[in-house]
């Protein structure tokens, strides 16, 4: 890779568990009707703003892949699924309501609020999430010739840690970034290994009804 690669990160559309305020992690509840509409609107915005990208990469979880589908139906481009772009593994918390977890594990949530990198539900840490997501993005950028655009369909947690990694914020730097809304765009200027990257745009909505649901 030579030159700077524009990484356009897209959060998935609204899911059922977003509406029900449940943790999702690497489990999946599927897109709602509103989420499918958001995906169509995001596809139009992506095409209008960025044209045809050199590469599309997506998390393999259904809510991200189905969001990508609305975009992929409109163009002929190389696409790759990458499990490293999945949401954080939150173990036994997946599918549980936020209120139940708050009642059962207040000490864990308090620790997270203080910036401690604890394992939610026995899953992975944010540091582990950040390493795998950034490696996936670097690999995607490396598949291009540089001065290229790569569109990435993923989740709120990966977008937050990717923004922190791009700016080299020490953990838990992702806490400085609000959870992205459904089908929002975040643009990272990736300059290559050991170079200075940039966060060009963060959490730009593409759909009028996008929810600021938690990035879990």
UniProtKB/TrEMBL annotation:
Gene3D superfamilies: Phosphoglycerate mutase-like. InterPro entries: His_Pase_superF_clade-1, His_PPase_superfam, PG/BPGM_mutase_AS, PGM_Phosphatase. SUPFAM superfamilies: Phosphoglycerate mutase-like. The keyword DNA repair does not apply. The keyword Isomerase applies. Signal peptide: none annotated. CDD domains: HP_PGM_like (cd07067). Keywords: Glycolysis, Isomerase. This is Histidine phosphatase family protein.
């Amino acid at each position: 890779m030579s030159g700077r690669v524009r990484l356009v990160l897209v959060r998935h559309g609204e899911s059922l568990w977003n509406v029900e305020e449940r943790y999702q992690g690497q489990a999946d509840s599927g897109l709602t009707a509103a989420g499918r509409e958001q995906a169509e609107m995001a596809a139009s915005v992506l095409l209008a703003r960025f044209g045809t990208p050199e590469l599309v990469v997506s998390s393999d979880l259904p809510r991200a892949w189905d969001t990508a589908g609305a975009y992929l139906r409109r163009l002929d481009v190389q696409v790759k699924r990458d499990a490293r772009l999945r949401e954080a593994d939150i173990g036994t918390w997946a599918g549980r309501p936020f209120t139940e977890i708050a009642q059962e594990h207040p000490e864990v949530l308090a620790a997270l609020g203080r910036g401690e990198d604890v394992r939610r539900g026995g899953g992975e840490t944010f540091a582990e999430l950040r390493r795998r997501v950034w490696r996936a993005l670097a690999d995607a950028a490396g598949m291009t010739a540089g001065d290229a655009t790569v569109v990435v369909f993923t989740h709120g947690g990966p977008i937050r840690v990717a923004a922190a990694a791009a700016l080299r914020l020490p953990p838990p730097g992702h806490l400085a970034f609000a959870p992205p809304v459904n089908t929002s765009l975040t643009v990272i200027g990736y300059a290559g290994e050991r170079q200075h990257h940039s966060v060009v745009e963060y959490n730009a909505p593409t759909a009028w009804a996008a929810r600021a649901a938690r990035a879990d």
